[in-house]
Design brief:
With 153 residues, the chain is mainly α. The chain has a domain of 61 residues. Helix 2 packs antiparallel against helix 3. It is elongated and about 110 Å long. The termini are far apart.
């Protein structure tokens, strides 16, 4: 019976409440609700701030990438210049080695014999490297020829 009284009391309390609108955010008068009634100005301010923050982040990221590209370009320029200078110095060193070999061989054989030995050795080295390059080039062309014949089939 106690449960019966509780249920009756709950019904009586609900009956005592005034009629509340079904949607507490909806306007209470009979006019149609406009979309502005459902938006909060602080929410719109937060969305605007979020858009501004996104724009600021994008601008900062673009500036960072531009700076990084400039730095990379300068670094590549320094590396390329250093490589060119290294190749020039290597060339000078090889010339000095050739001259030194001619001078060193001159007392053993005549000066013309020393020049012939050094030039002959350099030409033999050059021929070896040309042969290696040609062999490698034919391997590469064979790879592409096999793939192009597969594609043509």
């Amino acid at each position: 019976m106690d449960d019966q009284n509780r249920q009756d009391g709950a019904v009586q309390e609900d009956a005592a409440l005034p009629d509340a609108p079904a949607d507490i955010h909806a306007p209470t008068d009979d006019t149609a609700a406009s979309p502005e009634d459902y938006f909060d100005d602080s929410l719109m301010g937060e969305i605007g701030a979020l858009i501004d923050d996104g724009r600021t982040y994008a601008e900062a990221e673009i500036a960072f990438q531009k700076t990084r590209a400039k730095l990379a370009g300068r670094t590549i320029g320094v590396a390329a210049g250093s490589l060119v200078l290294a190749i020039i110095l290597l060339h000078i060193a090889l010339l000095a080695l050739a001259v030194g070999l001619v001078i060193a061989l001159a007392p053993l054989v005549t000066i013309w014999g020393a020049i012939a030995i050094v030039v002959g050795g350099l030409l033999a080295g050059m021929a070896f490297f040309v042969w290696v390059a040609a062999k490698s080039g034919s391997k590469v062309s064979g790879l592409f020829a096999a793939s192009s014949s597969d594609n043509a089939s």
